[in-house]
Amino acid sequence: MISRAWGPNSLSGLAADAHTEFYRIVAPLAGAGLRRDESLRRYASFRIGGTADFLLIPPSVEAISLAFSTAKQLGIPITRLGGGTNLLISDAGVRGLVVRLGRAFDYREWERPEGHEVSVRTGAASSLGRFVSEAVELGWGGIEFAAGIPGTVGGGALMNAGAFGGELSSTIIGAEGVTLDGDVVGLSRSQLDFSYRRLELDVDVMITSVSFSLRRAPVVRLKGVVESVQAKRKRKQPSGYPNAGSIFKNPPGNFAGKLIEQAGLRGTVVGNAQISPDHANFIVNLGGAKAADVRALMQIVQDGVWQKCGIWLEPEVKLVGEWNEASAVPS
Ligand SMILES: Cc1cc2nc3c(=O)[nH]c(=O)nc-3n(C[C@H](O)[C@H](O)[C@H](O)COP(=O)(O)OP(=O)(O)OC[C@H]3O[C@@H](n4cnc5c(N)ncnc54)[C@H](O)[C@@H]3O)c2cc1C
């Protein structure tokens, strides 16, 4: 018998049938990695968000491929998560399939490490911070500026994460992934179109690995850079409350935080969310904040900065899930 009623969200009969069929096909390969009605709050650094109809933590590339091709066939939408450190997940949660890479995609493969340059193929679920530490300890330079950027290597590539003048794109030489149709693909550097906090691809993929080219450098110098960027981070960024880093991109030649301060919005509170008194481009969850609180603050900031400075701030943070507005951008 097909159950049409599971889950907190009242599914139409058709959607419920599609979900049952999806589970029947994908569960044997995905095993315990396929979960239904999973709260996403713990997968986001904001500690905010509703449930996903399905959360897949895939054991293999084959499991992703099967899940994507099946989802496509059944009309089930797909959402990709990394470490969840640059996301705001809606209170209503995410319909369809959410995929988040886990342990099976946490690896580093160093190639020809004896010369002055090395290529390293890095699983997309690897912690970016751990990858940086490992490279620094081994005396490989090029990504030390990224020390302290939270999240995964895959999310970092997709966001072209950067800090203190460096961007991941400067060291990335290729990637591998699975298209939303389920095809496994390799992407050369020329297919990766990076710009400020953005990677554009001809086809949407779940990135499964990223390859970097790093250069030999003295460990002492690399450790010095790491210490200095970590100290700057400590001084500049609020600590103590869950957040998702910078909420808005810096407009050309300006700083979002400075503009938000000029608009007099530092410290503004909606519900249980606040524009950080320490750094105005951060919104913090004071405890039990709703995604709607954060979204309302974002709109207050955009309107306030527009009125005061004539600049429309573009969100850096990605809105994920169901929103009652046209501006939400599914990823
Ligand atoms: C305290 C704090 C400090 C921060 N400082 C910085 C900073 O200095 N510089 C900076 O650039 N960012 C910073 N960030 C933001 C964030 O850490 C980065 O953008 C990070 O690279 C996001 O990685 P993630 O794995 O968490 O991605 P997520 O937040 O999970 O996802 C971000 C986007 O990437 C997509 N995505 C994630 N993984 C994959 C994948 N494998 N395949 C395809 N798409 C994927 C998601 O769909 C989403 O659109 C900070 C965040 C916090 C909380």
**DSSP strand (E) fraction?**
25-35%
Which percent bin holds the helix content? 25-40%
The value of Rg in angstroms is 21 Å
Largest sheet: 6 strands, antiparallel
List ligands, each type once: flavin-adenine dinucleotide
How would you classify the helix and strand content by structural class? alpha+beta
Q: Quote the average pLDDT.
A: 93
Shape: globular
Q: Pick out the low-confidence regions.
A: 1-8, 327-331
Fold and architecture overview:
The longest helix is centred in the last third of the chain and has 19 residues, at 291-309. The protein is globular, with a radius of gyration of 21 Å. The strands form six sheets. Strands 6, 7, 8, 11, 12 and 15 form a six-stranded antiparallel beta sheet that branches. A four-stranded mixed beta sheet has the order 1-2-5-3. It is built from seven helices and 19 strands. By secondary structure, the chain is of the alpha+beta class. Residues 1-8 and 327-331 have low confidence and may be disordered. The site of flavin-adenine dinucleotide has 31 residues, from strand 3, helix 4, strand 9 and strand 15.
Short description:
The chain has 331 residues and is of the alpha+beta class.
Spell out the blueprint of helices and strands:
Elements lengths: L12 H18 L3 E6 L11 E6 L4 H14 L3 E4 L5 E3 L4 E7 L7 E4 L5 E7 L4 H11 L1 E2 L11 H7 L2 E2 L2 E2 L4 E8 L4 E5 L4 E3 L2 E3 L4 E12 L2 H18 L19 H7 L6 E2 L2 E3 L7 E3 L5 H19 L8 E3 L11
Parallel strand pairs: 2-5, 3-5, 4-19
Antiparallel strand pairs: 1-2, 6-7, 7-15, 8-15, 9-10, 11-12, 11-15, 13-14, 16-17, 17-18
Bound molecules: flavin-adenine dinucleotide.
